Amino acid sequence: MVQRSKLGTRTLSFVGRQEWLDRPSYRFEHMLGLVYNALGGARDRVTNALNGAWLGHPVHPPLASLTSGALGTTVALDALSVLPGRPASELVDASRFARRALGLGILANVASAVTGVTDWQHTHEEDRRVGAVHGLLNLLATGLYVKSWADRRRGRHLRGIAISALGYGITVGSSYLGGALVFESGIGIDQSGQRLRTHDWTPVLPASSLQNGKPQRVEIDGVGLVVCRTGNGEVSAFGEFCPHLAAPMADGWVDRGRIVCPWHGSRFDVDSGEVLRGPAAAPLPRYQARISDGMIELRGDGHHPLGASSLEAKRGVAK
């Protein structure tokens, strides 16, 4: 286990050092931007759907799980179909269902690739290189799966089984890289930071010091937040970091009822924190704010669009 762990670490380190991948990857990102911009008014709707703004988290992971399940089923049925001593009817059924599972896996893999590329385009440096190799390996594996599916349709079952087994081995290796992006780099994970749990109104700064359209960072009980004025002159308070890749929202700005992430342009509703435009998928935690005797006061039992604040509070009580 230790050796495999070291091998995985060395592999990730090696891929992360391949700076030659940067130039083609940024060119590909530029091409993606042109494609999305060509959608005109539908751009935000399409990218939000691909990023998972409607779901509250990225769409890529569940599609990747569906892909893995379908392809794993294909390999299992293939193994069953070549076992000696099985009735001919069972072998035919296993082969037929394996081809159907493979077809589902191909479709899920394509959908997973489209959503994965949409998430990947906002990564940088080592994460971008690992993600690029992850995607290229999946592209290679998908080509093998298509070839396998076509061979099976032509009656070349053993050849199809061998090709899909090779593709599945590539998929397993690629999945390791994808898992590293999630669990080590936090790609696709809500990175909005700690939740404020205090239920008491806490003064943070004079209302007169808050500029229109400019979020300002404050801190309560070691938890960072940003405070801003909305278009109607009221005050809103949010988590310190963008849920997408932890951009400091204090460097962002308020534009027509939306608080904008300074790094990748994610936009959140100032009244609810809900995502209006990705690449962020999770909402921005929002807290209760008021002005009392000229001071802005906050408390941590404000609402979060998906209940993350209350869930976090419950976990804290349970501990």
TrEMBL record:
The record's InterPro entries line, in alphabetical order, gives: Cholesterol_7-desaturase, DUF2231_TM, Rieske_2Fe-2S, Rieske_2Fe-2S_sf
Q: Which UniProt keywords apply?
A: 2Fe-2S, Iron, Iron-sulfur, Membrane, Metal-binding, Oxidoreductase, Transmembrane, Transmembrane helix
* One Pfam family of this chain: Rieske
Record-annotated Rieske domain positions? 202-298
Is Calcium one of the keywords UniProt gives this record?
no
According to the record, the segments passing through the membrane are: 158-183
Name of the protein described by the UniProt record? (2Fe-2S)-binding protein
* Originating organism: Mycobacterium kyorinense
Q: What is the lineage of its organism?
A: Bacteria, Bacillati, Actinomycetota, Actinomycetes, Mycobacteriales
